[in-house]
Amino acid sequence: MIPDFNKNPDQLLPAIIQDVRTAAILMLGYMNEAAYTKTLETRKVTFFSRTKNRLWTKGETSGNYLQLVSLRSDCDRDTLLLKVLPTGPVCHKGTDTCWGEANNPPFGFLSVLEQTIKERREQPETNSYIASLFQKGINTIAQKVGEEAVEVIIEAKDDNNTLFLNESADLLFHYLILLQAKGFQLQDVVAILEQRAK
């Protein structure tokens, strides 16, 4: 739907900027028709800066561009939604978003599980299975991942889907622990897969 820039007296429409990978709202800017056209032509998000009174391509001084993935207007044709790939921090203060929030990929329950693993590692409880694995060290954690991988392979050859899924859950759980033991998170692995897909 083509936006209607005449709906506002100043012919500026709010432009909501959203990370296409994480769905996080990164910032809000304003576009006039020239900024809209330039954004479509260059695939780099350009705004009309009300303070500079001119077109301004996000990243023109910092190098932190917003690569356009999609652009559409709302049902009233007076608000824009731009889905982008940011090439660095979005806010001029150096944060991921203009609200100071981290722009991490949401993995649903897996993100919650990663946080639980982190908390159990940093604040170990005496009866915590996760904490006990971290106390035993990387060799024990890696061995556990290997054992679970073998069990997944064994169950894959049988016809019991319940056992296969349970062993798959065990493997994923222990793999998340191994990632953190090595100083990484699931998003680090996903980033490599995204690079390979290009």
Any idea what the shape is? Answer: elongated
Q: Specify the helix fraction band.
A: 40-55%
Low-confidence stretches: none
What is the succession of H and E elements?
EEHEEEEHHHHH
Radius of gyration: 23 Å
Beta-strand content bin: 15-25%
Please report the distance between the alpha carbons of the first and last residues: 29 Å
What is the strand arrangement across the widest sheet?
Answer: 2-1-6-5
Counted by DSSP, the helix tally is 6
Whole-number mean pLDDT: 94
Which structural class is indicated by helix and strand composition?
A: alpha+beta
Biggest sheet record: 4 strands, mixed
How many strands?
Answer: 6
Structure description:
The protein has six helices and six strands, in the order ββαββββααααα. By secondary structure, the chain is of the alpha+beta class. α2 packs across α5 (161-181) and α4 packs antiparallel against α5. The mean pLDDT is 94. A four-stranded mixed sheet has the order 2-1-6-5, covered by helices on one side. A two-stranded antiparallel sheet has the order 3-4.
